[in-house]
Amino acid sequence: MTDTFGTEHLRTTVLAAWAASPARFREDANAEEDFALGGYRDRLIVELAQNAADAALRAGVPGRLRLSLAGGVLTAANTGAPLDAAGVEGLSTLRVSGKRDEHGAAGRFGVGFAAVVSVCDEPTIGSRSTGTVRWSRAETAALAGKVPELSGELAERGGHVPMLRLPFEADAVDVPEGFDTVVRLPLRDEGVEQAVRTMLDGTGPALPLAMPALSLIEIEVDGVSRVVTAEGWRVVEESGGFTAAQVAELYADRPTEERARPYWLIRWAVPEGLGRLPKDVAPVVHAPTPSDEPLDLPALLIATFPLTTDRRHVAPGPLTTFLVERAAEVYVRLLGTLPKTPALLDLVPGLMGKGELDAAVRRAILRLLPGTPLLPALSPPADPDRPSAAPPEPGASYVVAGREASAVAGSAEFLDKIAHAVPGLLPAGWASRHPALTTLGVTRVELADVIDMLSGDAVDDVPPAWWRELYEVVPGDDREALGALPVPLADGRLVRGPRGTLVLTDSSSLDAGLLGPLGLRVVHPEAAHPLLLRLGAAEATPRSVLDDPLTRATVSESLDTADPEPVAQAVLALVDAAGLTAGEAPWLSALALRGADGELYPAGELLLGGGSLAGLIDQDVPFGVAAPDLVERYGSRVLEAAGVLDGFAVVNDSDVLLDPEECDHDLDAEDEWLEAVLDVLPEASVPPVAREFTAVRDLEYVADWASALALLTRPPLRAALQPLRALVDGEIAEAPSYTAWWLSRHPVLDGRRPTSLRVPDGDPLLYGLYGDAPAGLDATALSMIGVRTTLADLLAGHGGPDELLDLLADPSLEVDRPQLRALWIALAAVDPSRVAPPTAVRAVQRGEIVVADAEDGHPIGGNGGPLPEGLTATGGPVVVEAPDLLPVVAGRPLVLAPSELAEALSELLDLPTAGEAAAGEVTSSGEERPVPPQVRSLLPTAPATYVEHTELTVDGVRVPWRFYEGAVHASTVEGLARGLAWATGQWGDRLAVAALLRDPGAVPVLLAESDLDA
Q1: What pLDDT digit, counting tens, does each position of 843-859 carry?
Q2: How many C-beta neighbours within 10 Å does residue 811 have?
Q3: Distance (Å, rounded) from C-alpha 889 to C-alpha 880?
Q4: Whole-angstrom Cα distance, residue 748 to residue 705?
């Protein structure tokens, strides 16, 4: 066996050094252990690949590495320069690399081979052409044990020795065919073997990418092979050297060995598919072998960053700062070489990094990206003089920087349409919401803003058909954004917003030329599209054209135009085509039409010659007669629908908001009617809505009311008299219709207002208060226009109780006493909140019916006639609640009704009761007497005693009886009978009790008569 590599000399030298300085032994042992178990504990495969790459680089041949694991032994065969003595010396030393003068070598620290110590105790390296060397932990320990000076160190270390410091000559090993060198590593145990398997499974393209000299890695585990190459990756790199001044500045804090290699390299690699990194490529910085510095980008960074002593982290300092900036520049250059597809956005880094170095690289990249032309655009940037930095990709015309680009959501067809109006517009597929666009400084242009850009020079020359093509592809789901979408009109104008425009569809029978005089916004036929209808445009049907606000405005102004004839022709033709009926569009009554006298009139002031209305209206009213040629050309139906009067014109409307600002049909006193209706309807949080509204107009011009009412109370006009039904806070309520209300307020029945009359066979309780309505109209029709029917209906109606009280306060009207009592009874049931207290009341004073002042009681008038002479009042009117007080308040006007209603009437009329107006105190004295026992046959609950007075006085007034403080006081038999009947609540039996007291023997007959009472 030949010692080709001088291993004996190396051993002798090292052992002598250890003997001379045991501390050197301890230092070597600690260093080897630190690297094997620390910085290089999991770098075995990387270090084997690195040695293979450097060997190929020295020999100038393509590097190949075969890693085989079988039978507990890992072998690594490689091509390239064979092992030599300098290499053996380098492998047997720590931190003294034999490659420091090799530019491009991956190994640069002289410690990588220490990784084998973590898995193997007997490593061997052999080259086909030069020889073999081995290391042995056992033999090293044996030799160290023979050195007396090391005994203490060995004892303290438990026999652990720095294995790689003592190489041994070895027999030749078999080098696989096609390879030059082989490393053989018998693995220490099964645990180590499993760790090596894991390292082999994780070996991926990062190794050949980091070591370009290594073109191929073959991995064979238990007979299963796979190949690792750098194929399928896009790589961009940049390298250079440092001047002496730069070395002094950038390497000031770096070791001498590093300063001796003043070169730098930046290499970025991304998968061709631009996806995430493969799982066998660790997302870390490679310097050039993997470090523990995370890099959360879908790209592999390989750079000559300076490392800390553990060889796992990048050392901060000026050199790292320099390389970070170069890495950013190369990364941006890499992005510029990639296909201009949306996948490019996934390579734009976010702001947050996973580590300090990652964040620094990201920040440097982000400083450069917004100003770098990377993005394809369909249109030039806002500054067209700026040259593109890259040739255009297919489907795009420009390459622009992010800050010059605009992103719009939409289809490719839509973006192609708007490209000329939006600077730097990205093609379709570039998600406008991708966060990378914000990072790049791309402007997100919302649809509403795009619509705003479609103005001025951008659309001056586009034909109407271009707009239809745009409507076909514009995103139609954002109606708010499309609210200002430009629309070309048939008259050449371009207006903003489809709402208010009219679209002539293929099925439309309208002539655009006919509509010209109306000033309508008719969409150009070549631009018409269904989208416009969805956005608020109306289909140009006869009815929609008539409903257009511009048509209404033209009609309302037609009387003041120089030539209203074309407007009249257009409108009448539309009315005819729409099939409108009279009253359906009341605003048409403002249309200027010619009269028979050649003058112009609003249609609503024209009559059809010979029509039914012509004989009813006042001849002094300035109505004209429609020109005969208009009647002949359009017919009476069309003219009536346009507002010309034949019979009464009827206004029909639906969903009418009962609000002064909204409800306006140009009817006489419509505002007063609306105020009355709102007063009748319940209060609501929002204005009521009338589902159907029907009204007869021009009632103020009628002269012949007998004939007019005959028409109004017959169908179809009778429907206008029906109550208005309104929706009030979700409930239906009724109020007088306009027509019924108007008629009720005017003298249309023989010169009298309907509300002052009653139907001829109406409620007798209303007799004398209302006149009789004339014959000829049915009672139902009369009631609808306000003629009174029954007392109950009157009091149930809005304002009815006040009306009745006002009539009772009118001394010119006559009522009899039973009628008055019945009216008070009915009024007592009315809620006081519905009534305003009267200023005068009809009452009974000293047996006479009079109208008295509600305050002081002085008589105002008689009962349909003069006041009785000498009648004066001693006080204000009172409501009598007890009969024993009648003599006390006899000088006052008395409201008389059943006593149980007195309280209600007192509140309704705001008058005191008799008991409130008088003290009612018994002011005379008497003696207590027993009540005759026979009284109990009629009054079972009669008191046992009463107080007999010779002369009974109450408040100084002589009275026959008084029920006071629970006792009956009486001075006469009749008084006692009344007092007992009142005290027992049997007031109706007072006369029978009086008869009994006069003749006790009449009890049987009185009881029999009582049994016969109803």
Answers
A1: 999 999 999 999 999 99
A2: 21
A3: 9
A4: 6
CB atoms within 10 A of CB 629: 10
- % residues pLDDT > 70 (the chain): 94
Antiparallel, parallel or unpaired: β 224-228 and 859-861: unpaired
- Strand-pair category, 967-970 with 945-948: parallel
DSSP string covering 19-76: HH-HHHHHHHHHHHHHIIIIITTT-HHHHHHHHHHHHHHHHTS-EEEEEEEETTEEEE
Cα–Cα dist 797/304, whole Å? 101
Distance (Å, rounded) from C-alpha 858 to C-alpha 853? Answer: 5
For residue 657, what are its two tokens? 């908001």
Listed in sequence order, the residues at least 6 apart from 244 whose beta carbon sits closer than 8 Å to its beta carbon are none
Beta bridge partner(s), residue 182: 77, 126
Distance CA 416, CA 476 (A): 16
Count of other CB atoms within 10 angstroms of residue 626: 26
* Cα 813–chain centre separation: 66
Report helix angle 549-557 to 565-578, nearest 10: 130
Over the range 38-62, which residues count as b (16 or more CB within 10 Å of their CB) and which as e?
A: ebbbebbbbbbbbbbbbbbbbeeee
What 3-state class would DSSP assign to 514? helix
CA pseudo-torsion sign 85, 87, 90, 91: negative
E strands, 644-698, are: 650-657, 689-696
Q: What is the spatial distance between Cα 737 and Cα 1009, in angstroms, rounded to a whole number?
A: 57
How many other CB atoms are there within 10 angstroms of residue 789's CB atom? 17
Give the residue among 339, 390, 329 at the shortest CA–CA distance from 234: 339
CA distance 34 to 28: 10
Residue 529 phi, psi dihedral angles, 5° rounding: -155, 145
Residues whose CB falls within 8 Å of the CB of residue 198, separated by 6 or more in sequence, listed in order = none
- Nearest residue to 666 (alpha-carbon basis) of 644, 651, 645, 676: 651
132-183 pLDDT per residue, tens: 999 999 999 999 999 999 888 888 888 789 999 999 999 999 999 999 999 9
What Å distances lie between residue 562 and 159, 485, 521, 566, 1002, CA to CA? 122, 35, 22, 11, 104
Cα dihedral 670, 671, 672, 678 sign: positive
Report how far residue 420's alpha carbon sits from residue 165's, in angstroms, rounded to the nearest whole number.
74
C-alpha dihedral over 372, 374, 379, 381, to 10 degrees? -10
pLDDT bin (cut points 50, 70, 90) of residue 388 is: very low
Tokens linked to 244:
């002496």
DSSP code for 762 = -
CA distance 733 to 655: 15
DSSP 250: H
3-class SS at 264?
strand
Number of CB atoms found within 10 A of residue 662's CB:
11
Token pair 């249609």 is found at 603
Largest Cα–Cα distance in the chain? 172
With both helix axes pointing from N to C terminus, report the angle between 1003-1011 and 990-998 in degrees, rounded to the nearest 10: 160
The HSE-up count of residue 40 (CA atoms within 13 Å, CB side) is: 26
Q: Is residue 727 classed as helix, strand or coil in its secondary structure?
A: strand
The span from the CA of 60 to the CA of 56, in Å, is 6
Beta bridge partners of residue 720, listed in sequence order: none
Helices (H), 548-597: 549-557, 565-578
Strands 848-853 and 859-861: antiparallel
Residues whose CB falls within 8 Å of the CB of residue 803, separated by 6 or more in sequence, listed in order: 755, 794
Q: Looking at the predicted structure, is the pLDDT value of residue 108 above 50?
A: no
Cα dist. 666→59, 571, 698 in Å?
A: 107, 20, 10
In whole angstroms, give the CA distance from residue 603 to residue 343. 70
- Per-residue pLDDT, 878: 96
Distance, CA of 288 to CA of 853 (rounded, Å):
117
Q: How far apart are CA 1005 and CA 330, in angstroms?
A: 134
